Structures are given as C-alpha cells and as structure tokens.
Amino acid sequence: MKVFTARQAIFNRRQQTVAYEVFFRDGIENVFPKDVDPNVATSRLIVNQHLNVGISTLTNGKRALINFSQQGLIDRVPALLPPNDIVIEVLEDVEPTDEVYQACRELFHKGYRMALDDFLYHRKWDRFINFTRLLKFDIQNTPLDEIAPLVEKFKQRKGLKLLAEKVETPEEFAIAKKMGFDFFQGYFFAKPEMIQNKDIEAQHAMILIIYHEALKPYLNYTKLARYFEQDVSLSYKLLRFTNSGLFVLREPIESIKQALVYLGEEQARKFVCLIATAHLNKNKPLEIIRVSIIRARFCEQIAKQVVPQLADSAFMVGLFSMIDALLDSPMEALLAKLPLSDDIKTALLGEKTILFFILELVKAYESGSWWAITKKANTVGIVQEELPDMHRNATLWSETYESIK
User: Fold this and answer.
1) Which of 54, 92, 254, 270 has a CA positioned 20 to 30 A from the CA of residue 178?
2) Closest Cα to residue 163, out of 83, 41, 65?
3) pLDDT in 10s for each residue of the chain, 405 residues
C-alpha cells in the first residue's frame, strides 16, 4: 500500500533550510483532502510516516512542524513523537481554553517546542505565548503592513521567533525580512514536495479488537500481545514506536508482550488509539501478511519442541521474515530500525543459527518440497510427521481474529 506525505521547507534569513512543515496527503494530488478530519489526518501522518520510516528521515534530521487539532492536543498526541524531532503547531481554530492551556503547558515541560499557526493576536493567547517558541503569520490573510505593530511588539521577546508564512514574491520576502521576521515559508522558496512510501495494510477487524481491549479498565498485556501478534503491520509499527527514542531500552526486545510492557499502560493505550484513528476504513489484509502470521506461529511451535527458550524469538523471526517484501526495502536496513535481539536479526539476515534453520524448515514446508523438508527437519531435530498438525494449528490460529467479538 502506498502512503503519501508532503513537506515544505522553512528558511532562515540567509535562505538556508532549517526545518520542514509536513502535511498529510491521501493520494498523489498535492492537496489536503477536504473530507478528512484534521485529527484523523495527523494520526495517519504519524502512522504512515513516523512508524514506517521515521519523521527525521523525511526531514533529513531537521525538525518537523506538525499541525495538531484541539482534540489532539487535549489527548497529548504529540507525546507519541520524540520532542527533539518536532515542533507542535497549534492550529488556528484551536480555542485558548484552560484544558488546552494545561495540555500545552505539560507538553512544553516535557521538552516540546510550540508554534501558534496563522497567529491572530488576542489577549486570551498571552499566557500561551510564555511557552511558545514560534509565531507564524499568514501574510496573505493578514497583509504585512497590518501586522507590522504585532511584529514589532513580539520580536522584542526573548526566545520567541517569528515566521512569515505564504511568502510568494521576492518583494514580500524583502519586506518581511526588513520587518524583522526570523523565518520564512511559501511558494517563493518552495512548493510542498510530495514524498511517497510504502505501508503494510493492517487488518481492520484486528484493529477494532485491539482498540476494544485497550479501552478496558485493566490492560491485559498477555491478551493484547496475542492480538498484535496476529497482524505483522501493527507489530512492526509497535516495535518502531518502542524504538523511536521516547523510551530507554535496557535490553533488546524479545517479544511483542515485552514491547507493550516497556510502553506502560498510558503509552500503550495512546499508541492503540493512534493506530485505530489512523486506520479507519482500511481494506482487508494482503495474502502475504496472512502467510507471515502463519509462519510466526509455525516457527514458534517448532521452537517449543527443540529450543523452548527461543520460542518467542522464533515467533518474531517468522512474523518479520517477509518485511522486506512488504516494504520494498532491504532487510538489513529495516532491521536496523527495530529493537530486536541479535538472535532474531542474525536469523533474518541468513546466519546459520537454529532460528534460521527453523525458518528454512517452515519455508520448505510452504513450498511442498518433501526432500527439503526431510533434510531440514533432520537439521532442526524434529520429527517430520509432527509438522502437518503444527501447520494446521498455525493456520487456524491466524484466522481466530475473525471469530473474536
């Protein structure tokens, strides 16, 4: 599945790129879709971009300015992203309520930088400006000569920078620069640039099940992990999120349950809500994902017979064995972004370990090569006659989500 993001460069007074504003897109047309709620758009932007290749990859390591709606701020959605990677843009239609103020204040004290988008001054915003680092003025909606007094007032404040948005001509740039603006954005410099990536299609039914489970008063990590394990897309995004820099990983991740426990209840619930919001109205899963899930369970069952201590790792090897095909990227590059143990990574990269041989046996079984099955079963040390029941059980297990209510 193709996913789309647009970015527009932000320049300093020397016309050097210092950051990018990133925008959600749902197709190759470089416009914001009118029928998408802003809160949904931001959630899908985070899922499509950050949980696949990373926001910092899109911006070449520079900060990304991301729009957040009023509800997104109240829900603390920005806290799902590393504070050093983003600037929170408070949309112009956000109301300066006490609830919004408390959310922005908390995010500021967690290290996030704030920007007020399409800023129109009202005294109700005064308390917000105390922890705002950037004011953005839309010079097409509010001409430069009209905002000159505001610019003069706010450029005196220490730590507060001003950005002229929608600068479309050399003359506008020259005037804005002379007025004292620090940063500039608009068609005069660069139009929003489309970026296309691939995402793995998630299972709509499984997302609803996970969402329902996450809303329960007591979070059952074992049960939640079991659901994640039946969707390679969600498992991949979970591991990317765990490895996003928000959490201190004291040891490599060995299982989906371990990744959820690392997040803790609050962040796990936020992550699930983000996924649920972003994947509304998605299509059914691809066949290749179903095969990955069956592989994971099949590998796990074999490992329980021959190396029980590696059963969880065997599951992960099977689950991510086709991730390179799903994302059209080299396996080595993808694994570098995931906090998996060396045992799992080396097996997926072809090093001849017991986990590698288990995966090879599963692949041989899929291909129906009985000569190869016999040879690899002997290498692994399992009775060949046990494999049909294991594969049948793995197939049934992969389909259980359809009957879960």
Assistant:
1) 92
2) 65
3) 554 567 788 899 988 889 988 876 654 444 444 555 666 666 666 666 555 556 777 777 889 898 898 988 998 888 888 898 889 999 888 999 999 999 999 999 999 999 999 888 888 999 999 889 999 999 998 888 888 998 988 988 888 999 999 998 888 999 999 999 999 998 776 566 555 555 555 566 567 678 767 767 788 999 899 888 878 878 888 888 888 777 777 788 888 999 999 888 888 887 887 777 666 444 434 566 678 878 888 999 999 999 999 998 898 898 888 878 766 678 898 888 776 789 999 999 999 999 999 999 999 988 787 888 999 999 999 999 999 999 988 888 766 544 433
Closest CA to 79 of 70, 88, 71: 88
Round to whole Å and give the CA distance between 123 and 350.
63
What's the predicted TM-score (pTM) here?
0.57
Angle, helix 38-45 to helix 256-278, in steps of 10 degrees: 140
Q: How far apart are CA 197 and CA 401, in angstroms?
A: 28
Could you give the CA distance from residue 294 to residue 398 in angstroms, rounded to a whole number?
6
